[in-house]
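Here comes my example:
=====
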Amino acid sequence: TAGYWVRQVRETVRFADGVGWLQSRGVRTLVEAGPGGVLSAMAQQACGEEVTAVALLRGAETPEDTALAAAAAQLYVRGVPVVWESLFAGARHVELPTYAFQHQRYWPEAAEDAMPVVQDPLDAEFWASVERHDVRTLSESLGLDTDVVSSVVPALSLWRDRLREDRAVEGWRYRETWKALDGFSASAVSGPWLVVVPADVSDDPWLSAVVAAMGPSAHVLEYDGYDRGTLASRLPGNELVGVLSLLAFGAAGPGVTPPGVLPTLVLLQALGDAGIDAPVWAVTRGAVSVGGQDPVASPWQAGIWGVGRVAALERPQQWGGLVDLPEEFDERAARRLVSVVSAERAEDQVAVRAAGAFGRRLVHAPASGSGGVPWQVRGTVLITGGTGGLGAFVARWAVERGAQHVVLLSRRGSAATGAQRLSSELEAMGARVTVVACDVADRSALANVIGDIPAEIPLRMVVHAAGVSHGVVELDSVTPEQVEAELQAKVAGATYLDELTRGLELDAFVLFSSGASSWGSGGQAAYAAGNAYLDALAAHRRAQGRPGTAIAWGNWAEAGMAVDSPEQGEYLRRLGVLPMSPQLALAALQRVLQDDETGLTVTDMDWSRFAPAFTVSRPSALLSDIPQVNEVLAGSSESTDAGSGFAQRWADTPAADRPRFLHELIRGHVAAVLGHALSTRIDIGQAFKELGFDSLTAVELRNRLAAATGLSLPATMAFDYPSIAGLADHLSEALGGGPEPDEEVLRKLIASVSPAKLREAGLLDAVLGLADDAPDRGAQEQQQEDDEATLLAADVDDLVRIALADNES
């Protein structure tokens, strides 16, 4: 009908929601039965690499029989049964040939479980009856009255479901720990440092002691709210060994912006503008806790730690690290500070205490005990961001766990999409529901909401799930306005909730943080700063004897920032931060509260993807105590026996053609990684960074080339050799048997380079025969002396490579 087509045009096509729903329920293969592959491409983009979309037809450019056969083959290798007889008359299965091909085994070996679990058939039948709620069968098996069994079966079913959920999320739990470090004993810095101090506290005795520790040659710059350009113009022009930022000790920024966050970002931008690449270290005091007897005293300063974790990923060469100092900054603490910022090691998140220096680690956090009685909700639960995706899931969970009243806060209140439907759903579950339009960054409005909660159903639980993200904005581009806007919902909301509930008897005060603060996330400096403050606020509340729990979530499957921004969600999946089903994420929340945790990271990680990308441009000790990470990183450095076919092709390629052969090989894989249809448009001399490479695509290129060549290539390959031409030179050396030197080129080099220099470079014997044919050197001696600074200072090997590259063109 006409109405059908009008709806098709006017209403939202929820295609991504549809395929996402299928993915969340375990669907991993989609088949498009239609005239082309348009929907397959859209589905692949929406679901990422976990799902494969197969189009049966490819349009007019591909014959139908060819397209159908290819689609059937693609489905078959993914484990989808195919009735081959319906496609090919007389089709039948044949045995694989016994010849060993390249003498490598490609079939996966079945892993042998050290303790195989064999379930008793009687147990299996018993639990199947419980799940079916088959009271009659259970009564007969147990010899009990049906009324007794009826009352027990629901509890047994719930217990088993909870046990399954706990096991499923056990591997998602990680916590922050601090590891004692050795070898920090330097007594003085080498060379001049720039120390940046807030102007309003420059005469503080504690800060003065820190400045003095950086040595007499330290250049002190007082930051007085300068903008980016002004600060760049005030930076010293002399060579610096490092930059020490004390900006965390300044006054708070606009609104409720943590002190030092915006000035630190401005400092990094100004240093980049001025061309200063000396490592930057940011100092805090009491922003982190290394143990139970070391409380978080300054949660406000923790925002700097969020900024620093992002800077380490975006500016790996410019960023030095983070160091938290003790309240008593004595001579011993000064030596440790100097040693930390001077050391060339992977420790870039360090806390200096009286007992020593400690490095931050992320480690597995198994649940404590056997679980006990499930954590229950009572009274009123206030949820910020309550009508959003995460808030709605939490609201349902709270009502299911016993909440009598839920207060859902959001900017639009009942006018928010789905708010009315959610409210009706919760009321049908037996709860009283209040939906309020309230900006949590407005303290007075928030105070009115809390004050209106009825005394007969007192506020017992707060869940701060509100947040705003402007997406991925690199450090160099982020503006003060963006920083303030992103921090208000997170930071102001948490601060005001903390203050306004201080006199109430709460069972839980839960802050929804993010992996952006746990390990950092490129392009999210302000977002990471806000979440790092939430982590510290929870610890600060605990130190004061009040409830406080911060959960740094990974990637939720059906809600949250990754769903609001499909591009960010796809990037996280490719990075190895896998989407978690809301049901299991809420089971993790339940267990966190049951175990009375202060801070935890909950995320489903594919470490084989994440670890190489995370460390590709900068070594990090943060993940070094996670066994899976060590296995992945150790495996990436081991040589493989793959690529024997490539080795033969390399050997068969004439020497003169090998550079072009490598250029085309690398260019093809670069195009595939970046998603370009044609590789011929990629300039072999253009830097990978200019082509759009990031840490993830750099690792993907490494993996492709390692598989193609059989070489052991470092994860930092694209950063060490930042162009196709440079990488081709490296691969040529690694493969051996590179291009034969051109005699005329060598003669010209010999004419320009002295025998002494050739001897130093170990090349004299190799070209001795050609030297006899070289022109007399006497006339060139003076010229050689004049050119020594520019010509002979270079390594002769580099000159040979340059000459050969010129000769190739």
Q: What stands out?
A: The two ends are 66 Å apart (CA to CA).
